[in-house]
């Protein structure tokens, strides 16, 4: 049985969302662990006054690529950017680029999505559902495609307590929703959003559930796998421990606690904080790509990529771990000494917000005003409260994810290790 890195040798890979957090780690891992991969085509949009090639050059200067750079200083030659815009028809890919992609791509990793919890429904639908439809219609034309891997989220079905590795019926038929929202004014869509998303907490989880349905509708014609990671955090080991490039979700909360800004958070101490390192997700994604192409499962396999069932870690434990970490390794320019308490009691939480957040912010802003500077602390706290408010749904309850397919893939890797010369199990587990 050939090893995973041997399978990727000579392959042309298409990656969406390659400039995002997970996309970058996927690009780096492919270049480093599958050095004979032929080319990585990445969909990139020009933004904020930067051209497409400038964005890619900036990405490749990142510390994340240092290990690849040491082994192969010319690694950038394998990265081929394709100008694209997810909100445009046909993803705004030029006819020449469509011709190139349809004639050479062997495997597609669809990582692009908006991960903002409070994204307006129309925009979330455009980026997470319609863009996936557009990409799938391009993928249908690919003559040498062997697998299509879609990155979803473990919380797509967070309205259920027990989540199996299956694609559940969608909350609404995606096409009907897209057609009906098309003519509606944004303010009307905003008004009806709570009724539409129902028992899901936000537009992100709602549109990711719809995207899974869109992918499933094509599973008869393509070899498809869906990866469902839980809360993706900093890297565990690869390319080095602790790499992260954003302050989304818990990462931002931890930094705010380390800086002494965040002193309280509302969460259930007993609820599992299902955090998963980004490199574990990417290793599973690449392994699933190989398995999907080689074994061609009859139906789209779903992989719940979670830690709660294997190695549960509770929100109540975070308080101790975060505090002890920042005492050992204090952050620069801290607002005050780190100290946080987690409570599930609403009144106690409101008391701490007032005493440890709002009063110090008012006093600090008054000091800034008196010294002729612009007040900023209250604004920072308001943004922080909004962020932790969006997290509350996930930090106050528990889910149970089945991970049979993930375990099956792991057993394939150990089998693979015994029958190949490569250290595959070590690299990909």
From TrEMBL:
Bilayer topology: Single-pass membrane protein
Provide the protein name. Fatty acyl-CoA reductase
Coiled coil, from the record: none
Q: Which family does it belong to?
A: Belongs to the fatty acyl-CoA reductase family.
Keywords noted in UniProt: Lipid biosynthesis, Lipid metabolism, Membrane, NADP, Oxidoreductase, Peroxisome, Transmembrane, Transmembrane helix
Enzyme class, broadest EC rank = oxidoreductase
| UniProt GO BP | lipid biosynthetic process; long-chain fatty-acyl-CoA metabolic process
In short, the EC number is 1.2.1.84
Transmembrane keyword on record: yes
The UniProt record lists the Thioester reductase (TE) domain at 15-284
Per UniProt, residues of the Fatty acyl-CoA reductase C-terminal domain are 357-416
Note the Gene3D superfamilies from the entry.
NAD(P)-binding Rossmann-like Domain
Protein's cellular compartments = Peroxisome membrane
Quote the catalytic activity from the record.
Answer: (9Z,12Z)-octadecadienoyl-CoA + 2 NADPH + 2 H(+) = (9Z,12Z)-octadecadien-1-ol + 2 NADP(+) + CoA; 16-methylheptadecanoyl-CoA + 2 NADPH + 2 H(+) = 16-methylheptadecan-1-ol + 2 NADP(+) + CoA; octadecanoyl-CoA + 2 NADPH + 2 H(+) = octadecan-1-ol + 2 NADP(+) + CoA; eicosanoyl-CoA + 2 NADPH + 2 H(+) = eicosan-1-ol + 2 NADP(+) + CoA
Q: Which GO terms describe its cellular component?
A: peroxisomal membrane
Give the GO molecular function terms. Answer: alcohol-forming long-chain fatty acyl-CoA reductase activity; alcohol-forming very long-chain fatty acyl-CoA reductase activity
Tell me the classification of the organism that encodes this protein: Eukaryota, Metazoa, Chordata, Craniata, Vertebrata
What function does this protein fulfil?
Catalyzes the reduction of saturated and unsaturated C16 or C18 fatty acyl-CoA to fatty alcohols. It plays an essential role in the production of ether lipids/plasmalogens which synthesis requires fatty alcohols. In parallel, it is also required for wax monoesters production since fatty alcohols also constitute a substrate for their synthesis.
Where does the source fall among the domains of life? Eukaryota
